[in-house]
Amino acid sequence: MENYYLQLSTLVFSVFIGVSLFIVSNHLRVPAIILLLAGGIVLGPEFLGLIHPDALKEGLRVIISLAVAVILFEGGLTLNPEGLKKAPKMIWRLLTLGVLVTWLGTATLIYFLLDFTVEMSLLAGSLIIVTGPTVIAPLLKRIRIKARLYHVLHWEGVLIDPIGVFIAILCFEWLAVEGSVLTHIWHLSLRLLIGLVLGYIGGKAITGLLRKEVIPEEQSNIFVFGAALFLFSISDFIVHESGILTVVIAGLVIGWAAPPRLKHIKQFKSELTELSIALVFMLLAANLKLESFLDMGWMGVLVVAGVLFLIRPLSILVCSRGTSLSLNEKLFLSWIAPRGVVAGSMASLFGLRLVAMGHPDSVFLETFTFSIIISTILIQGGTAGLLARALKVEQPDKTNWLIVGAHEFSRKAADFIRESQGVECVLVDTNVDAVNDACEQGYSAYRGNALSTDVIPPDVFVTIGHVLALTDNRDLNQLICENWSEVVEKKNLYRWSSQSPEVEKKIAGPGIPVWLHLPKPSQVSFQLLNKELLARRLPGGVPPKGRVLMSATENEVFFEDKIPPQERKNQWVLERVKANLSGLLNSRHILFIDAESYEEALARIMAGAQTLYPDLPFDKISPQLFEREHEFPTTLAHGVAAPHIHCTELDEAICFVGIVSRELKLKTYEGEHVRLLFVLLSPESEPELHLRLLAEIAKVASSEEKVELLLSAGNGQEFLARIKSARG
Fold this sequence. Notes:
This protein is an alpha/beta fold. Helix 19 (about 430-440) links the parallel strand 2 and strand 3. The N and C termini lie far apart (about 95 Å).
């Protein structure tokens, strides 16, 4: 009974303290394995005695084996096939030449400096072939290096594990199991065959079941977890130690096939991996004997130094020959090769078996392997960020934008972001016509489904730091933000939604909802194309006439008017274009004038306009109007005239009305009597709007009753009310 409680407390303390240390490491921004090693040693028999791995007996081997299976399966799931295209030559060389250099080079150091047998030297050297995803992945997340360096280290970390394990098993059999060389080679070949075949078949089967939705959505995570462990155990049952390759291949097949719910499966497996690492490292660290590290002596220190400063650089030098890697990139790769849970697990498993066999050098395997683990994590992991900055191999900040939608509204948003921040904006749409139009106008646009992060080329993908989803479907926008949350910070994910702010607060989905007051983006685009809306970039100090959609400082874009006007460098404003006659007019635009001539009436109207718009260059506009009106008079019917011109100096249309006293008999240049003048000034860039407004004026002038109704207005407000009915 006492042994039961000892086993229970060992597992419970290992899990709880291990997970807690994982959380602490995130807050401290240090590699979790450092704290796990320290925590395991302190809680182990050497100090507090709360964790006793020996109490688990054969269960320790089972736990370690299953944990390694979970870790490597998750590693296979997360490998991106595009990453292999980044540096295929370097990756394959590391998995072949690099393995040989590390293995044989380390074995040579151990043989000559520590005076072990050839068999033991080769076995010890094989244990540190693996670099391990458990330490590489967190390290790469923390330091953010260039894309191809990231892929080289990540692929090496996952794919080298089964290779290193197989070589270690071969060396262990040579040392501990009787048999000929051919027998050992046959066993290794059989493991490779079973691992590849069973892993591929198992991965395909799991993918098929997920795609056909045979597995309920809410149970897909636990099914994949159980299936991975099943494949591992079946493979190991057929051929001992073949399960590791099986789960890696199965993970690769599932990850590359991308079945439904893959993102949630990856997240679940990631959590299980962290749990496995926490448990295993606590147990392995507690199982260490500190005096055995002292027994290695100075020669042991030289061997460790040789692995760090001689073997790894030599491996990178050999493997990178003839590649496009720069000197700085080679130096960085030469320094980064931390070992993790797989190396420690295999060392402990072999150590336990050698102890049972009474082998005199069994303790050395664990001691040497954990010396490498601790040294590489502390020295290499601790200095990786500084070295990346010094060698200038850090990934530049992801400042570019992905805008989902290639319609006019998206293009205008892209224009503002690009002009105010100096960054690139990439448009993505499933509509081939919209994409083609955007490309013809000079935008970077791609046809595809933005739900997939592979929708844009890899070299563009690594630059995306912001996402703005502008489809008409608010649920689709939310789903796009959810999918991109794996690669873009959540604070940089934005989406249009038609929900009210109160509803959005309750939903609290991924992506920050913006522009809730706007109609669907396609409708906004239609109104922009038809000049019913105008999107303009204004300096920060200019009071906007419309709604502020975005405002920008030197380094950041804000949605809506989140920052005070005095802090804005630029602002993007959406204005309602006064696209009809009554919309252009207000009471101050209605002038009751006395004039002796038609020319004088025009002059008084223009003087009134200049009073209202002192910033406009009427010294240029007025002569143009008079000249045009003299050459091409615009007298309509029933005493109505419509002097008008296009002006390059204007950004929007302006209209003024002059009502001449009934007693005055003004005549135009053609001799026609005039009492009602519509003076229309419009931008040269909007000829359609100009014609539409002239058509409205002509419609008013076509009816004597309408003209008389307008002339009888006693003030500007009354005229405005009557012009609305006259237009009808």
